[in-house]
Design brief:
The chain has 304 residues and is α+β, with helices and mostly antiparallel strands. It has one domain: Roll (T-fold). The chain is 31% helix and 30% strand. It is built from 8 helices and 18 strands.
């Protein structure tokens, strides 16, 4: 038996498919995602994340929130600092100060000065569960939270009795091996064509995410006139990254890793980004603004 559900959550589209779904499986998934949104959204004043940014500490953080922040710390190390969650101040300075649906309708605004990110100013203590922010930094977990949530939902649905699941949270996709032995096919959108596809990726037990500066853009006024800013902040500058990459897609074992690694490739630029992903042994494709496509050696294992 195959079941499918689509709904809105945490400001994004959720698409779930389950083989042999347990009773009330969609409700269970919704409840998990609603709980995580209440903990991690920077647009909820009473969320754990908002309280951390407002007071500079969580003493202690909940188990789930600490695990997410610890995952962000690990992603910072693995990406050589190209993924850094202490970019909230830079996002606000660039104008991303409200839900994107509202932001998209707003006219051009002036970008404010921003400072580089500084994960070194985040202190976490596994023994106590404490998280402390120093040097007036603030964090945004949007670049890793959806993947983390997709992994949680997939694992929970399996624990409830589903034979296999696909969890897609706004493009952060986690799949588990299907009982029929057939691979899931995940379409990778063509950034140059509204309805085009550059590849269909075959996944068993795995994850995939695409990072692009085309999806979340808004108008800003600069010395060069009105231009578009995007949400992919370069931690080294505190500004929207200036990259030759238009989209980077990465296949990983867990969804929590896919988006941070794709973002790292975007920020690094095509040449260095592909080299990093190749060194990590990942299947990935990187597309540039001039129309070139770069693939890691393992990409052909997944691309169809």
């Amino acid at each position: 038996m195959l079941a499918e559900a689509r709904f809105q959550v945490t400001g994004t589209d959720a698409h779930l498919i389950a083989f042999d779904p347990p009773d009330h499986w969609e409700l269970a998934a919704r409840q998990i995602l609603d709980e995580l949104d209440a903990r991690w959204s920077r647009f909820h004043a009473d969320s754990e994340l908002s309280r951390l940014n407002a007071t500079g500490e969580l003493a202690p953080a909940s188990q789930l929130t600490f695990a997410l922040i610890e995952a962000a710390a690990n992603a910072h190390v693995v990406t050589g600092g190209r993924f850094d969650a202490t970019v909230l101040g830079a996002l606000l300075a660039a104008g991303y100060d409200r839900d994107f649906a509202e932001l998209r309708e707003r006219g051009p605004i002036a970008m404010q000065p921003a400072r580089p990110a500084s994960w070194a100013s985040v202190e976490i203590d596994r023994a106590t569960g404490w998280v402390v922010l120093h040097d007036d930094v603030s964090i945004d977990l949007g670049g890793i939270a959806k993947g983390f949530a997709a992994d949680l939902v997939a694992n929970e649905l399996l624990a409830l009795g589903a034979a296999a699941v696909l969890v897609d949270l706004g493009g952060d996709v986690r799949t588990t091996a299907r009982p029929d032995g057939v691979a899931w096919k995940i379409a990778v959108d063509d950034p140059w064509s509204p309805h085009g596809v550059i590849a269909n990726v075959a996944l068993g037990d795995g994850a995939i995410a695409t990072c692009t500066g085309m999806a979340r853009r808004w108008a800003v006024t600069t010395e060069r006139g009105d231009v578009f800013a995007h949400h992919l902040i370069d931690p080294a500058t505190g500004l929207p990254a200036e990259s030759d990459v238009i989209a980077a897609t990465v296949v990983t074992t867990e969804a929590v890793w896919a988006a941070p690694l794709a973002k790292a490739a975007f920020i690094a630029g095509a040449g260095e980004g592909v080299a990093v992903l190749e060194e990590l042994g990942l299947g990935a494709v990187v597309l540039t603004e001039n129309g070139r496509k770069y693939e890691t050696s393992r990409w052909r294992e997944y691309s169809r």
